[in-house]
Amino acid sequence: MRRPEPGERMPTRDARIDAYIARAGAFARPILERLRADVHAACPAVEETMKWSRPHFMYRGMLCGMSAFKAHVAFGFWKGSLLLKGGSRKDGAMGQFGRLTSVGDLPTRAAIRALVRAAMALNESGVKSPRRVPRAPRPPPRVPADLRKALAGDARARRGYQGLSPSGQREYVQWLEEAKRAETRAKRLASALQWLAQGKGRNWQYERRATR
User: Fold this and answer.
1) In angstroms, how far is CA 41 from the centroid of its own chain?
2) Which among 168, 145, 212, 207 has a CA at the least distance from the CA of 196?
């Protein structure tokens, strides 16, 4: 196992990523845990963090990140275009590995770890990511009927929702849409209205903890 160089930070594990994995769907948790373990095995000095409400891994800059969605997981390298042929997305998913729905969809441990080490080498050499063509900003999400009705009857929550960026609005909508039971969705809607009325984003608990 590679030893950290003098002055290099020791590996870190972020409690927010523990919480993120715990909240993910049952199919997603083994995938996320496998990816996390492979990154740590290949890069003992890796630092974990949350960016854009998703787990990311750092080593002298951005290495890679992973995301759990309702029916798939995505994983990608920050400099994927330099690591993988084409480096483009597959199946319209984020990252370079398409829609991961089981551990069996992942490349081998050896392949993932080799890519992590290659990404480390790029960062150590100071190689910059190729300039990306700016993408058109994503429009605000479609507001579900129950949220739209609730916001219409709560002026403070409506102002809080309208004050969020499209990505902030999307986090609330996705959280509601991921509820599998009507009772769970109703509870989440009530919490959302309370937090929005207070001007809080969906992940305000973790944001506050991160600033301590």
Assistant:
1) 20
2) 168
Four-point Cα dihedral 151, 153, 156, 158, nearest 10: 20
DSSP the chain: -PPPPTTPPPP---HHHHHHHHHS-TTHHHHHHHHHHHHHHH-TT-EEEEETTEEEEESSSEEEEEEE-SS-EEEEETTHHHHSSS---STT-SBSS--B-SGGGSPPHHHHHHHHHHHHHHHHTTPPPPPPPPPPPPPPPPPPHHHHHHHHT-HHHHHHHHTS-HHHHHHHHHHHHT--SHHHHHHHHHHHHHHHHTT--TTHHHHHHHT-
Q: How far is Cα 81 from Cα 127, in angstroms, rounded to an integer? A: 12
Going along the chain from its start, the domains and CATH numbers come out as: 15-124 (3.90.1150), 145-210 (no CATH)
- CA 94, 179, 52, 103 torsion-angle sign: negative
Q: The whole model's pTM is what?
A: 0.57
Predicted confidence (pLDDT) per residue in 167-208, tens digit: 889 999 999 999 889 999 999 999 999 999 999 998 887 654
Which backbone phi and psi does 125 adopt, to 5 degrees?
Answer: -85, -5
